Amino acid sequence: MSSQLLRLIPVGLVTFIIYIVFTGSITPYDIVTGVAVAALTAALFSHLLVENTSKSLNPIRLLWLIIYALYYFTIIEMRAHLDVAKRIIHPKMPLNPGIVRVPYNVGTEYAIVTIANSITNTPGTVVVDLDEDRKVFYVHWIDVKGVEPEITYKNISMTFEKYAKKIFD
Q1: DSSP assignment of 75-105, as one string?
Q2: 5: Cβ–Cβ under 8 A, 6 or more apart, which residues?
Q3: What is the mean pLDDT of the chain?
Q4: In the listed set 19, 37, 53, which residue is the last one of a domain according to the structure?
Q5: pLDDT by residue (tens digit) across 6-59?
Q6: How far is residue 137's CA from residue 107's CA, in Å, rounded to a whole number?
Q7: 42: enclosing H helix or E strand
Q8: Is 130 found in the same domain as 68?
Q9: What pTM was estimated for this model as a whole?
Q10: Count of domains for the chain
Q11: What range does the domain containing 104 cover?
């Protein structure tokens, strides 16, 4: 099978799953419509979204993506929400906000975006800029524990990067 056709599979599959999840239904109409939408989306966008078909069809990478999603949405998000809630409930709790440089060590754009989105979606941190030449994110952090690259990396992006490398690099 040619690589052009193999590119259609991951894009079509992800599109179909998203369609079914958001419709919340598996009636024959939704399945047929979902397949049509997924096929059209894959035909139009797979050449833009998939660079390496062997990576996109690797089941180990998919397994790491699932593990990361579960870990992120349960453990990481819960801890961050509880920390911010504690700061709201206890206004005397010290705040030390600031913008810090956070280094990253991934190679693909998908991995960079995954890390930046994970940082931004986690309460208490927001990526405000990216310097691709220096390989750093500029992150607004609600409680700066240090400005040294080792400290910012360890506290903000290390876990995200570990999974992004396994999924995308």
Answers
A1: IIHHHHHHHHHHHHH-TTS--B-EEEEEE--
A2: none
A3: 91
A4: 53
A5: 888 888 988 998 999 999 989 999 999 999 999 999 999 988 887 777 777 788
A6: 14
A7: helix 28-49
A8: yes
A9: 0.80
A10: 2
A11: 59-168
